[in-house]
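REQUEST ID: PR-0412
SUBMITTED BY: lab tech R.K.
PRIORITY: routine
TASK: structure prediction, single protein chain
INPUT:
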Amino acid sequence: MKAFFGTFVNKVDAKGRVSVPAPFRAVIQGRGLQSVALHPSLFDACLEGAGFDRFENLESEMSDSFSPTPRNEIADLIMAELRELPFDGEGRIVLPDEFIAKSNLKDQATFIGQGRKFQIWEPTALAALMKAKLQRVAAAVKNGDA
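STATUS: complete
OUTPUT:
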């Protein structure tokens, strides 16, 4: 299965439309899909996405019962906010207003591949995150921890 990799910055227009990077669309369309499944991250100020097929695995973990049962609470939280966003003719998706607000997006969005999924960040926030990660990795290598 092809993975999401690379970093791409795309414009977000006034209607919330953003072009999904062509390599990311190719991964999704290679699975026979014509949409992105997207949700706000549970832990960071970004959006997380993939093809809807990735999230079907979460659904299979959720029990179908009329009585209270132990559940995967992470799956519950993700499925509650998950949206399927179809590609338009130009490979764009329309981000819901609440997703734009939760991820602090303005006029640009940075897509970053993470293997089985991708994230969408406000560019300045992602730059700060990546700088901090690089500093942690460099310190770990210097200390012999890596």
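NOTES: The chain has one domain: 7-142.
REVIEWED BY: pending
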